[in-house]
Amino acid sequence: MTTNHKMIARDVSVFYGDKKAIDSVSIDVDMENVTAFIGPSGCGKSTFLRTLNRMNDTISIARVEGTIELDGEDIYASGMDVVQLRARVGMVFQKPNPFPKSIYENVAYGPRIHGLAAGKPEMDQVVEKSLRRAGLWDEVKDRLQDSGTALSGGQQQRLCIARAIAVDPEVILMDEPCSALDPIATAKIEELIHELRGRYAIVIVTHNMQQAARVSQRTAFFHLGTLVEYGETSEIFTNPRQEKTKDYITGRYG
Ligand SMILES: Nc1ncnc2c1ncn2[C@@H]1O[C@H](COP(=O)(O)OP(=O)(O)OP(=O)(O)O)[C@@H](O)[C@H]1O
Ligand SMILES: [Mg+2]
Fold it and tell me: Which GO terms describe its biological process (predicted)?
C-alpha cells in the first residue's frame, strides 16, 4: 500500500451503550484508491464509516475509542470543528436526501454557510462546477430552480454527490449509495466514482460484491465488528487470505 494516506484509523472501537459494535479496527484511506467496505448486514460497516467524519456524534449512546487522523490531524481532538470536518469529509447516504429546495439551492447551501463564494456570479460557478463533476449538469442546467425532490432517484443521488462536492471535500464517504437505484442509475454512479477517483479519497459501503469489484481498488471485509481482511480488491476477490472472507465472497453466508 502507498504511504500517501489521507486518513489513518488506528485501533478504533465503537460502542453503543455497553455493546461493542466495532472492535479495534485499523485502516488507511488514500486518494488514489477507492476503498470498499463489504460484509454481512450488521457487521458494522456503517458504524465504522460514520467514525470517519464523526457522524456517530449525533447518536447519543455511541462512543468511539482509538485514533483517526485526517492529514495527520486527530479528528477527535477537542479543538476539532465538527462542521468543518464534515465539509472536508462529506457523506452520501443510502436513500437520496435532497433538501426540499431548488436544485440550485441544494448545491449552493453548503458553500454559502461555509463562505466559499463571494457573490452570485461566483456561486453560479460553484454550482455549475459541482453539478458538472457530479455528472448532472446537462440534465438540469435548464431547470435549476425546480425542486431537487422532483428529480429521479438517480438524479437525486447525483445531486447529493454535487452537494457534497460543492464544499470542496477531501474525502467522500458513501453508504450504499446505489441500493435505492435501478441498474442504469447505478451504472452512472459507478462511472462517476471512477471519474472522481484521485481528486477525492472515496470510501463506499456496498452489499453488492460485483460493485465492490468494479469500483474499488481496496476492499475491507468486516465481520461481527472486526476487520477480517483489508487489501487489494483483486486479491480479496480472487485470492483471499482468510477463510471467512472466502466464505463470504463465494456466497456461503451473509
Ligand atoms: N444507533 C444505534 N444504536 C444502537 N445500536 C446500533 C445503532 N446503529 C447500529 N447499531 C448496531 O451496531 C451493529 C452494526 O450496525 P451497522 O449499522 O454499522 O451495520 P452495517 O454493517 O452497516 O449493516 P447493514 O449492512 O445492514 O447496513 C449492529 O449490531 C447494529 O444493531
Ligand atoms: Mg449499513
Answer: phosphate ion transmembrane transport
